[in-house]
Specification:
Layout lengths: L1 H10 L2 H7 L1 H8 L5 E2 L2 H7 E3 L7 H14 L3 H4 L14 H9 L3 E2 L3 H5 L3 E6 L2 H5 L8 E3 L4 E5 L6 H20 L1
Parallel strand pairs: 2-4, 4-6
Antiparallel strand pairs: 1-3, 5-6
Protein name: HECT domain-containing protein
Organism: Ataeniobius toweri
């Protein structure tokens, strides 16, 4: 069987290509090599569960989705770890926080089924009573993130809460 594979590669000129560019061709044949996630992959994996079009809730949810898209900045300028923060926020570490893995799935079937549900909590006061702050809730196992709408009305609030939740999650996993 290996001889047939070798003959097939030679027949189509791939054997020579493999000899010339082994590093480039390695991901085609070596399973387990992580492919770094980029912002485009992360955003394409996120599937927002939006309210009915035309409602106020829908408008707010779309605004938060747009805020999330603005986080493409992590790809260009990773948020560097500060004192007390265990690691920098990059596209890969953000994806790992969301899903438990910081790389693009290797198998095409896994890649096609890789979806992160984005949900919105419009009334965290009903769940938690009187309070001053709610954080995004991430469930890596079910690939879900729930954003507390009440506490993320402006981009600065959104970004600050998301980064704080990320760093607190990293601290939790460090223990």
């Amino acid at each position: 069987m290996l001889d047939q594979l070798k003959e097939g590669l030679r027949l189509y000129g791939l054997a020579e290509l493999l000899n010339q560019y082994p590093e480039i061709c390695m991901p085609l044949f070596v399973a387990g090599q992580d492919i770094e996630a980029n912002a485009e992959f992360v955003m394409s994996a996120i599937s927002p569960e939006l309210s009915e079009k035309g409602t106020y809730k829908y408008q707010v949810e779309v605004k938060l989705v747009n805020f999330l898209q603005d986080l493409y900045e992590f790809e260009e300028n990773p948020e560097h770890a500060e004192d007390g923060c265990p690691r920098a926020v990059t596209t890969s570490t953000f994806l790992q926080w969301l899903t438990g893995q910081g790389h693009v799935p290797l198998l095409p079937s896994e890649k096609n089924d890789f979806v992160v549900a984005l949900q919105f909590n419009h009334d965290c006061s009903a769940e938690f009573g009187i309070h001053s702050m709610c954080y995004p809730v991430v469930s890596a196992f079910s690939k879900t993130i729930v954003l507390p709408v009440k506490h993320m009305t402006a981009y600065d609030q959104f970004r600050g809460l998301l980064l704080e939740a990320f760093h607190l999650g990293q601290e939790f996993h460090k223990v």
